[in-house]
Amino acid sequence: MSRRHDPERRQRIIDAAIRVVRRKGIAGLSHRSVAAEADVPLGSTTYHFTTLDELLVAALRQSNEGFDTVLAAHDRPEGDLATDLARALGEWLGGERTGVELEYELYLAALRRPALRPVAAEWTEETAERLARRTDPLTARALLALMDGICLQVLLTGTAYDERYAREALARVIPPTGGAPGT
Fold this sequence. Notes:
Blueprint lengths: L8 H16 L6 H8 L3 H7 L3 H22 L7 H14 L2 H13 L7 H16 L4 H21 L5 H11 L10
C-alpha cells in the first residue's frame, strides 16, 4: 500500500486543533477530535504529534503569531509608544474575540501543562525585546504585563475595549523621555 504524499497535513492538523480548542476549550481536545476536524486518519495526528501537549505547543506557537503581527504593524520608532500600543490592543481586541480568547486559553494552560511553559516564556521574551527597542527592558516588561492585564479584563468582563484608558494607563508606565528612568 503506497503512502499518500500530503505535505500540508501537519499544518491542517494544527489548524484543526485550534478550531477544536476555540469551540470546546482545551478539555475538548483529543487526537480523535482533531483527526475528525482535520478529516485525516487518527494515526496521522499521533504520527505528527505523539502527545496532546506537542499539539498544544504547535497551536500556541501559531496563535502567538496573531498578536505579534498586529504589534509589528504598530511598531513605529518615531511614533508615541503608548498610542501605538493602545491602537495595537484595540485592533487585536476589535477583531475576532475567539482568536484572542484562544491565545489566552493556550497561554494560561501553561500553568498546568509544563510543556507549554517554554513557548509562553519565549513569546513573553520576544515581545519584551520588541518593546525594549523603544524603551528600556524594565519598562518593556511592565508594559507587557499591563497589556496582558487590560486584555484579560476586557475578555473576562465582556466590556468594550477603551483605547483612551489604555493609552493613558500605558503612558503612566513609560518614563517621560521614552527611555530608561532617569535618562
